[in-house]
């Protein structure tokens, strides 16, 4: 299956706001995390089958300070303090990928800021099912 995009502005947001004042985002805007640890964006993604998927977050960080986030899948830590370093400007968008194991059907992918600066500005999450096509041995 082709990669699927999930816009941050359509996700569940706790302690953050949807904005559109920095150009280059996809969709209607991006999520500006509140500058506090614990702020999060949570996407509900549909996986056709269980397996390993690439999760790619498109983001901007106009500061020189890393904005790490924990990635949780269905409540369990999948990747801790994933680094989102500065991109040079709030209008410079880059991507960061992690792999995660998803279950078949709906999965909650939560990206939670771990520092007082909050997360980076979050544009979208892309879920690539390529690896999930491989069947596991019986
Ligand atoms: C600026 C910027 C925001 C960003 C914020 C931050 O206010 O305009 O888009 O989210 O800094 O530091 O998080």
Strand content: over 45%
Estimate the global geometry from the Cα principal axes: globular
Distinct compounds present: alpha-D-glucopyranuronic acid
Helix content: under 10%
Q: Specify the biggest β-sheet.
A: 5 strands, antiparallel
Whole-Å distance between the termini? Answer: 22 Å
Global mean pLDDT = 95
Based on secondary structure, the structural category is mainly beta
How many strands? 11
How many helical elements?
Answer: 0
Integer-rounded radius of gyration = 14 Å
Strand order of the largest sheet: 2-5-10-7-8
Unreliable residue stretches: none
Order of helices and strands: EEEEEEEEEEE
Blueprint (SSEs and pairs):
Blueprint: E1 4-7, E2 12-14, E3 16-19, E4 30-33, E5 40-47, E6 51-60, E7 69-73, E8 76-82, E9 94-102, E10 105-113, E11 121-128
Antiparallel strand pairs: 1-11, 2-5, 3-4, 5-10, 6-9, 6-11, 7-8, 7-10
The structure holds alpha-D-glucopyranuronic acid.
Residues 22, 32, 35, 90, 118, 121 line the site of alpha-D-glucopyranuronic acid (GCU).
Q: Your description of this structure?
A:
- The protein has strands at 4-7, 12-14, 16-19, 30-33, 40-47, 51-60, 69-73, 76-82, 94-102, 105-113, 121-128.
- The mean pLDDT is 95.
- The two termini are 22 Å apart.
- The strands form 3 sheets. A 5-stranded antiparallel sheet has the order 2-5-10-7-8, with no helix packed on it.
- It is globular and about 50 Å long.
- 34% of the residues are buried.
- It is 0% helix and 51% strand.
- The protein has 138 residues and is mainly β.
- It contains no helices and 11 strands.
- Residues 22, 32, 35, 90, 118, 121 line the site of alpha-D-glucopyranuronic acid.
- Alpha-D-glucopyranuronic acid (GCU) is lined by residues 22, 32, 35, 90, 118, 121.
- This is Glucose/arabinose dehydrogenase.
- Residues 4-128 form the CBM6 domain.
- It comes from Allokutzneria multivorans.
């Amino acid at each position: 299956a082709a990669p699927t995009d999930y816009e941050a502005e359509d996700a569940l947001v706790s302690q953050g706001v949807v904005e559109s004042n920095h150009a280059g985002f996809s969709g209607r805007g991006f999520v500006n995390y509140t500058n506090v640890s614990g702020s999060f964006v949570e996407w509900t993604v549909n996986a056709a089958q269980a397996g390993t998927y690439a999760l790619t977050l498109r983001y901007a960080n106009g500061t020189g300070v890393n904005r790490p986030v924990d990635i949780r899948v269905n409540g369990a830590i999948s990747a801790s303090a994933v680094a989102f370093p500065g991109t040079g400007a709030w209008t410079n968008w880059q991507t960061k990928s992690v792999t995660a194991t998803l279950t078949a059907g709906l999965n909650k992918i939560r990206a939670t800021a771990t520092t007082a600066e909050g997360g980076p500005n979050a544009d979208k999450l892309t879920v690539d099912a390529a690896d999930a096509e491989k069947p596991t041995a019986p």
